[in-house]
Design a protein that fits this description.
Elements (H helix, E strand, L loop, with lengths): L10 H9 L4 E5 L5 H12 L4 E7 L6 H4 L2 E4 L6 H15 L3 E3 L6 H15 L2 E3 L3 H8 L1 H10 L7 E4 L6 H8 L3 E5 L9 E3 L2 H8 L5 E5 L7 E8 L5 E12 L2 E7 L3 H14 L3 E10 L2 E8 L6 H6 L4 H10 L12 E4 L9 H5 L8
Helix pairs in contact: 4-5, 6-7
Length: 357
């Protein structure tokens, strides 16, 4: 990626940074994910005096090699060991904030957020269990959006609504989308072009959603919203995106403020806290939301290049108690290119499970 030039700090920003007397140590989990790396990069590009501490259960996670300090974490499935590891790490390093870069870890942090904040003093940027359940269950997501007055694709469940299948096909037509009700990203999502394909993809399966296909692929958007503890939107950005195998490879920022504002209203109805990522396509020039992820996005690093630093906004609002007003993203194009990195073996061998150094 070609990085935008860093803006010059105005006098007020310089004063704020100078008033922060000590380093802000911040923990990023799931350092191997695309959005974990985006969080680390955003924190390191921040004008704030941030020190990033990254963890992952896999020693070959790229984010571990970019952070200031890195540790190998136990598996989150071993909740007791994982909890004590995180608690000790936060206390030993005086961590001020925790950013979650692993989808699998979201339920753990959501359940244990209050306990971790009390015992460590670190802010945990994670949505409530109710919001995570609602967003993880794509049928509940559609129901919430529809009940709140937002436009959604025509949808039915399978096999629960099998009796409605014929009338649904007649009214909606092909192609259709078949996807897991409890899926992640694009995993298991299938575009079916006729009835035979549909029947092949739903046979003997449960917990599916069959959905209207929103045809205009050039009008797909990913929208990032950050909300503070008081329910105020502190960051918002809408990007028209282009996908390869479910991951954004290109993003355009233009005059999409109305889409960002629309999604900010959606996030507010959820009672979200921290980061929310909303995916939609335009139909008759109106946003139609088909997925909400209750976390940071794989395009977090792309957003940084447009001047929107979501992790920094959360630290300013929640850790430093500053008033944060959403900024306007720069217009332009960001292309994502995958790169190879070389590191000496000493870097790999220095990774440790101990948090005492």
């Amino acid at each position: 990626m070609i990085a935008l030039a860093k803006p010059m700090l105005d006098i007020e920003e310089k004063t704020l940074v100078n008033e922060i007397n000590s380093t802000l140590r911040v923990l990023v989990t799931g350092a191997g994910s695309v959005y974990g790396q985006g969080i680390i990069r955003s924190l390191q590009e921040s004008v704030l005096p941030v020190e990033t501490i990254a963890i992952d259960s896999n020693p070959y996670s790229l984010g571990l090699f970019f952070a200031h300090k890195s540790y190998i974490a136990p598996q989150v499935a071993d909740e007791e060991s994982y909890y004590m590891f995180i608690k000790n790490l936060c206390i030993n390093h005086q961590i001020k904030a925790i950013f979650i870069g692993s989808t699998a870890e979201l339920p753990f942090y959501s359940r244990n957020r209050e306990s971790l904040e009390r015992s460590t003093g670190a802010k945990v940027f994670v949505n409530s269990p109710e919001v995570i359940e609602l967003c993880t269950d794509k049928w509940l997501t559609m129901c919430h959006l529809s009940n709140s007055g937002f436009q959604i694709p025509a949808s039915i469940r399978y096999p629960e609504d099998a009796g409605m299948l014929s009338s649904f096909i007649e009214s909606t037509g092909f192609p259709l989308i078949v996807k897991p009700r409890f899926g992640r990203g694009s995993v298991g999502v299938v575009l079916v072009k006729d009835k035979q394909q549909l029947l092949e993809n739903i046979k003997d399966k449960k917990s599916l959603i069959i959905q209207e296909y929103l045809t205009d692929e050039d009008q797909e958007f990913t929208v990032g919203i950050c909300i503070n503890q008081k329910g105020k939107v502190i960051s918002k950005i809408a990007l028209r995106r282009y996908l390869l195998e479910g991951v954004s490879i290109a993003a355009v920022s233009d005059d999409y403020h109305h889409i960002a504002d629309y999604c900010a209203m959606v996030a507010s109805t959820l009672g979200a806290y921290g980061a929310i990522n909303i995916q939609l396509r335009l139909k008759d020039s109106m946003p139609v939301i088909f997925e909400i992820n209750p976390r940071f996005s794989s395009s977090t690093g792309m957003r940084l290049l447009f001047g929107i630093n979501e992790p920094e906004s959360l630290i300013r609002s929640e850790v430093l108690c500053q008033e944060v007003i959403p900024g306007s993203p720069a217009t332009g194009l960001v292309l994502r290119q995958y790169m190879d990195y070389y590191f000496p073996l000493d870097k790999l061998n220095s990774l440790s499970t101990s948090t005492l150094h």
